[in-house]
């Protein structure tokens, strides 16, 4: 491919990844190479980002140099990415590698069907009935060099597990583990045999130059996936947009613990907030309603989320975080609103799509540590 054709191709791909925002202030390097800013062994955010996050010689930190990452590949419009696929996250910009895919049911309340077909998995929201559709997500590792640069917009220790049977509230996290939607993958290839810095990379993957991609799963990855499947599995994704703020919720069942002669069921939920408009807004308050199968209804109000009041702007449109909830029942529901503030001081509420909290009743033994 000629240099001009390569530049047109990368520009078109970036435009498809995020059509919003002004034209980029960046000229693609020759041979469609991806580069990052860094000095020595330290790398900053990847240069190949959506149009709303641009790095150029004008804003490059003084003393930093461009370092080659790899060669950009065409994003897949059909089919799934394989284990070992290198990628850049199209929203948060970090480097990562695919471990394995999950097939989830996406309930998008922005696309409601007036008639519900029989035998469809349906989630209701007010008068809406939403049919779930199959959507691919990926379990991925995040490059440790990029974690410090995304920590203000996305938690890098968001995948948590119940720690042991002695303390019903103790949790542990696997740093640099994430779930990524298919459309957020910007694939690339690299000749580096260890292109991602993560403590689990060489434990889970090995280099095989005869394969495409050249990183294949070790037996330890397969065993880890099988043993921890109930606590890793992503099954339902819920999405709704209010006044150009899109909220995506993914709940995960974590297991049951006994506390004070009762059973306590735990869930983790991951929430992504994304500003689809150019107006700057700031999250100020959260308002949750939590219904338990035992018949209780709890209301939770508070400032911000996880101790922050994130600003969503054209330059940094998204914020992602995880939190936890426990019930003394095996199932329940959650829904609510986020209150945002505009630059003129006015406020508006953004709906959090309702989602179910379901336990895996066929699983009797929740994890008590990291299983290999």
TrEMBL record:
It holds the Pfam family YccV-like. InterPro entries: ApaG_domain, ApaG_sf, Hemimethylated_DNA-bd_dom, Hemimethylated_DNA-bd_sf. SMART domains: YccV-like. Residues 239-364 form the ApaG domain. Keywords: DNA damage, DNA repair, Mitochondrion, Nucleus, Phosphoprotein, Transit peptide. GO terms for cellular component: mitochondrial nucleoid; nucleus. GO terms for molecular function: DNA binding. It is found in: Mitochondrion matrix; Nucleus. Transmembrane segments: none annotated. GO terms for biological process: DNA repair; error-free translesion synthesis. Its main location: mitochondrion. Involved in DNA damage tolerance by regulating translesion synthesis (TLS) of templates carrying DNA damage lesions such as 8oxoG and abasic sites. May act by stimulating activity of DNA polymerases involved in TLS, such as PRIMPOL and polymerase delta (POLD1). Interacts with PCNA and POLD2. Interacts with SSBP1. Interacts with PRIMPOL; leading to enhance DNA polymerase activity of PRIMPOL. Interacts with POLH. Interacts with POLD1; leading to stimulate DNA polymerase activity of POLD1. This is Polymerase delta-interacting protein 2. It comes from Catharus ustulatus (Russet-backed thrush).
